Amino acid sequence: MFCPHCGSMIPDGSHFCSECGQSIEIGTPQAQDPIYDQDQGQAQQYVPQPEVQQTYDIQPAAPAAGSYSAQTASPNRMRTDRDIVTYVLLSIVTCGIYSYYYIYEMSRDVNVMCADDGEETPGLAAFILLSIVTCGIYSYYWIYKIGNRVQQNGPRYGVTIADGGSDVLLWLVLGAFTCGICAYIGMHLLIKSINTLSTAYNNTYGLG
User: Fold this and answer.
1) Which pLDDT score, from 0 to 100, does residue 93 have?
2) What are the tens digits of pLDDT across the range 99-127?
3) Is residue 33 pLDDT above 90, yes or no?
4) Residue 152 and residue 156: Cα distance in Å, rounded?
5) Do the beta carbons of residue 165 and residue 145 sit within 8 Å?
6) Contact criterion met (CB below 8 Å) for 20 and 44
7) Cys bridge to 163: 51, 101, 134, 167, which one at CB 3.0-4.6 A?
8) Which of 76, 85, 112 is nearest to 194 (CA)?
9) Do 91 and 103 contact (CB within 8 A), yes or no?
10) pTM of the model
11) Is 156 helix (H, G, I), strand (E, B) or coil?
C-alpha cells in the first residue's frame, strides 16, 4: 500500500508511515497505484481528474407539419367584390341554394376579420336548423347580429361603417310588406358593410 500523505510504499495494514511518520487511519482513501510514464522513464502517482459534466444545447422542436400557429400564420385575403345583383341572380338560378352559400361565406369571413372580439357568428348549419325551428325568425336575428358585429369592428381597422344590424333588420321587416323588395335593400346594406370591412382588413395586412 501507499501512504496517503507522501505516497511512499509501506507494508499493508500499517498504522504509521515509516517515511513521513503520519498516522494512517482506517478508512483513509489509499493512494492509487502509480502509472509508469514511458517518456520520462519513472513512475508517476495517479491524480484523479475532476469529472467534466457535458452539456447539450437543446433547440426547441420545430412545429409539426400542418400545425397552425396564430402568431405565424399568414392571413388570407378577404373578398371585396360581393354585390347584391350577383346574389339575387344566382339565388334565382340555383333555386335559393346560392343564398345559403352566401351565408356560409359571410359567417366564415366575419369570424376571421372580427376574431378576438368576444363573439362568434354561427355558421350555415346553425343558421338553417334554427331558422327551421323558429319558422324563419332566427334568420332575421342572425342578420341583425352579423350587421352589428361588422359595424362594431370597423374602428378596429380604421373605418366607420354607417349601417348596422338595426338598419339591415328594418329593411328586412319592410320586405315582408313589399313582396321582398325592401329585403334586398337590407341585404345590399349588409353586403356593402362586409365589403368595406374586408377592404380595410386587406389593407391592414397588405393584402389589397
Assistant:
1) 96
2) 999 999 999 999 999 999 999 999 999 99
3) no
4) 8
5) yes
6) no
7) 167
8) 112
9) no
10) 0.64
11) helix
**Whether the Cβ atoms of residue 172 and residue 186 lie closer than 8 Å to each other:** yes
Q: Give Cβ neighbours of residue 96 (< 8 Å, ≥ 6 apart).
A: none
- Strand, helix or coil for residue 127: helix
Contacts made by residues 76-81, CB under 8 angstroms, sequence distance 24+: 76/112, 76/207, 77/202, 77/207, 78/109, 78/112, 78/113, 78/197, 78/198, 78/199, 78/201, 78/202, 78/207, 79/105, 79/109, 79/195, 79/198, 80/195, 80/198, 80/199, 80/202, 81/195
CB 25 within 8 A of CB 33: no
Q: How far is CA 178 from the centre of its chain?
A: 48
pLDDT digits (tens, 9 = 90+) for 42-101: 555 555 566 555 554 544 444 444 333 433 456 899 999 999 999 999 999 999 999 999
CA distance 49 to 104: 72
Calpha distance 200→91 (Å, rounded)? 28
